Structure formats: C-alpha cells, structure tokens
Amino acid sequence: MATVYDLKSRFQDLLRPIVRALARARITANQVTLAALALSVIAGLAIALWPAAGLPLALLPLVLFLRMALNAMDGMLAREHHQQSALGAVLNELGDVVSDLALYLPFALVPGVSPMAVVSLCLLAVISEMTGVVGIQIGASRRYDGPLGKSDRAVLFGTLGLLLGIGLIGPVFANWVLAVALLPAALTIFNRARKALAEVREGRP
C-alpha cells in the first residue's frame, strides 16, 4: 500500500548536498535528531499555550516539513558518514514518538476539537511505531508499512492545522477527519504485525 514514506529516497537525494556540508562541519546525526525533537516540542508548546490562535496551527506544515528534513538528514549522516550507534538508534525511535505526541496532542486543546479523537489517534500512532520496532525483535526488519505511517500522519495533522489555522474549516469537520483516520491508523498496526510475521516465516529454512 503506497504511502508518503515511498517518496523518501527522492527527498533524500535533494538533501544530500546539505548532509555532506553538515558532515564537513562535524555536525553529528544525534545532534540533528535532538534538533528535530526540540523543534517539535517548541511548536507543540506554542499550540498548547495558544490553542485558540491561528498562527501556531497554520505554521504546523512548515514545522513538520523541517522535522521531516531533519529526520531524513540524521539517518543519512548515520548511514553514509559512518555515524551509526546504539544511542542514535534509541534517540531516533524515541525522538519520533515524543515528537509526534508533542505536535499532535495539543490539538486536543484547540476549542471544539474532540480530545478523545486526538488522544485515540495519538495512542494508535504510538502502538503502530512500537509494532514497527517489534519486527526487529522477532527477526524481521523494522516495519514502516502504512496506510498511516509517520509521514502520512504529518500530512494529515499538517493539513488540519493549516486549514484550522486560517479558518477554512471548523472543528466539526476536523473531528470527522480525525474519526475517519482512526481506521487507517488501526490498519497500520495490523499491516506492520502481519508483514513482520510473514517476513519471519519466509526467512525460516
């Protein structure tokens, strides 16, 4: 099932000159990971502190794009410039989950937006990422299957943030979108578990 994640390789090609410059400047992958986390926390705090203001929500797509770029660059620094480490793996996985929660949970404070829908979707997002990591534990690869992976969630919340922020949609419409998104979020968990198990079975002698 196609997801935004499938565009990752093309995006990385565009970022490669910047990554080389970072490596020459002795910027490490872990520093980039922490920068992405800090950006997410600051942006999420802005929404939480001013939930009725349009600007923090409207800026969310830009924040998510920068976060996506930083996440791609930290991986490229690690793989292509020999910076892989156990600490980096831990920071990468935890940073993604914490960043998602920092950016998306504040939607529950936006007037009229359903806290239950927001919290439910965030909970499913955490479970889906955990399921992806469990693939490694059982001998499969880290699973990134959709239909609502990290990049797809970014598109969903970024679009909602922009439209809510500039007043093109109201919270009632946003609640319907969030409710509908629960189904692909749950399907993502199922797909990741199913494909990890299938990968293990196919790898057995």
Helix and strand arrangement:
Layout: H1 8-24, H2 29-49, H3 54-58, H4 60-80, H5 86-104, H6 115-137, H7 150-165, H8 171-203
What can you tell me about this protein's structure?
- This protein is an all-alpha fold.
- The protein has one domain: Up-down Bundle (Four Helix Bundle (Hemerythrin (Met), subunit A)).
- It has eight helices and no strands.
- Helix 2 (29-49) packs antiparallel against helix 4.
- It is globular, with a radius of gyration of 18 Å.
Looking at this protein, list some descriptive labels.
single chain; 205 residues; mainly alpha; Four Helix Bundle (Hemerythrin (Met), subunit A); 8 helices; globular
The CATH H-level homologous superfamily = CDP-alcohol phosphotransferase transmembrane (TM) domain
- CATH fold call: Four Helix Bundle (Hemerythrin (Met), subunit A)
Number of strands: 0
How many H/I helices? 8
Q: Indicate the proportion of strand residues.
A: under 5%
* Corresponding CATH architecture: Up-down Bundle
Low-confidence stretches: none
Round the Cα radius of gyration to an integer and report it: 18 Å
The SSE order reads HHHHHHHH
Could you tell me how far the N terminus lies from the C terminus, measured between alpha carbons in angstroms? 28 Å
Question: How many structural domains are formed by the residues?
Answer: 1
Mean pLDDT: 93
User: What is the makeup of the main sheet?
Assistant: none
CATH class: Mainly Alpha
Shape: globular
**Helical percent range?**
over 70%
